[in-house]
Structure prediction request, 505 residues.
Amino acid sequence: MTRLLASQILPTLELALSAAVIGLLLALVATVITAGRSRIVRTGTSVFEVLAVAIPPFWLGILLLSIFSFNLRWFPAFGSHGVSGLVLPTLALAIPISGVLAQVMRQELELVEGRPFVLSARARGQSRLGLLLRHTLRHALLPATTMSAWVLGTLVGGAVLVEKVFSRPGLGTVLVNAVQHRDTPVVSAVVIIAALIFVVANTLADTLYPVIDVRLRETSRA
Amino acid sequence: MSATTAAFDTARPRWRATRGSHILLAISTLAVALIVALLLFPGVFAPYAPDTNDVQHTFSPPSSTHYLGTDQLGRDVFSRLVYGARYSVTTGLVATAIAVVAGSLVGLTAAAGSRLADALIMRLTDVWMAFPEVLLALLVIALIGTGSTQIAVAIGVAAVPYYGRLVRGQALAVTKAEYVEAAKILGVPAWRYVLRHVLPNVGGPVVVLASLGTGSAIAAAAGLSLLGLGPLPPTPEWGVMLAEGQTYLANAWWIAVFPGLAIVVVVLISTMLGRSLQARSLR
Prediction:
């Protein structure tokens, strides 16, 4: 069983991690482009975010397959052959996650942009981009860091379904076979591994806080 | 349930009820009424029976005779979706009901019980929440077997800690209220003031979370059926239709795309209802 799980966990982790990275990047771009912009832009993006959250990854996968594999023939429809086979499943997982992250990050960013220190930095001649990179984006990243463990957990869970849609090898196939044959030890093992990933991600997030937020460094020393 | 719960947890009560939220509430209530009508009288809305084969019109694309096209056996996709709501929506509703009832029990026990009981229950929900919901549901299915009811139980069990924590927090706040203190001083037994005073005041936020959660429970149920753990193929359940339709994705996209769209619409309605109720309760 150990050998079985060891050989199947890598494709799943690869998928979940790349989806986490792409999801965070998408959310960052969406946040930076739209925070504090006109009402129309913001209404548009929040509609998009709500839609992204409502779409189940497994159906997004089917949609992407239908458009990009069967109609445009840009990407392979089955299996996991290199990077091109990873693109569509990653997007299927990343887009819904980016909707959640963007909602949270934009809320935080807009809250921070009303603070006096932002006005003061602007008055000193700090450009909008410089302000974003040096000051405000850190604030927006905090809630995203808090959610990272939840994000990874959701991604591992979602990966099981997306793997089925794309016929990718991985924990998904192992798990579904085990559940159908009521092979409880294998299922428990996978679930415990997932919980372990959650705990590790949470610990990592905790150690990342002081790196992102200077104020937390001060309080922990005091 | 996961995505919407996270959004619920992090949402700050910064907005007030505006005219927009009233309109949203009206629209979502109407949409819910329509879904209830679909559940009760599918025959009124569906032009065909869900299981009538028509070998002469297999794989016809969406048209005015078959709004959403036909599948590999010539069955009308739209009619199957309408009848399928009975399976998909009901499974989500049952799952949420299980989570609400069990979660309220857990939360109230923690809030009303001793400090030790509270601490124990809260650590238990911590552990519970560390498992991704889909995987926890899969573990439950491995233990109790496959089928619609089993899926509802599995998704319900996976969602219990979220309701438990919410109910506990609300109950603790209410327990400090003067009318509860008064009841305690008057010698009213714990189970009685919990049922008569605490529970009714905890209701609001639970209704909000439940209406947000129902949509994702429906999506999760369809996902588990897609894996082949729910009802078996002739059933017009949306996840089963997705799985069947995926086989023919290369030449008939409508068979798999529309069941997913139905899930998205239902999730959106449940999110809209939850958000507008939330905005109202924060007024």
